[in-house]
Amino acid sequence: MPDAPAPAEPALDRDELDRLVEAAAARDRDAFAALFNFYAPRVKAYLLRLNAGDTLAEELTQEVMLTVWRKAGQFDRTQASASTWIFRIARNRRIDAARRAARPALDETDPALQPEPCAPPDEMAHAAARDARVRKALEDLPGEQVELLRLAFFDGLSHRDIAERLGAPLGTVKSRLRLAFDKLRRVLDPDTL
Prior knowledge:
By secondary structure, the chain is mostly helical. It is built from eight helices and no strands.
């Protein structure tokens, strides 16, 4: 006697599907299994229509259904039906996959991605000596001139912004910065910097 055909999948209405998602939110594995059996083939077919290849559609379907399991508690039947909610997840996963595929691969030999080469030891020693001379020269400046240099060069403020912050006239700020540079120039021979 030939095998009897498998019974047709029972038709589920919107309320039943919504209840299954809500039951899955309560971690009802049987409800989730019913959801999976109902939606997984439909989601895969939908993803195939969105030009996902068979393998990608299968992977995305698994991701979608896993998301349904994990986020079933976020489902709100007053906002959308279970079908709308699940297919929106599928559409978003497909968009994410398309964006990932559109990103160019990084070229590991791109000079912008390479670390700066280490300076030779003699250059490092020269730079350290220069830095020590600059620090010493700054220590010898009056405190207000050091503050002006810090605001101008480390904080990146304009002369006008410095004047406003310190409540000093713009001309005073400019002349004090000029004095600081002159003192530094005398102490630090510009040819050795």
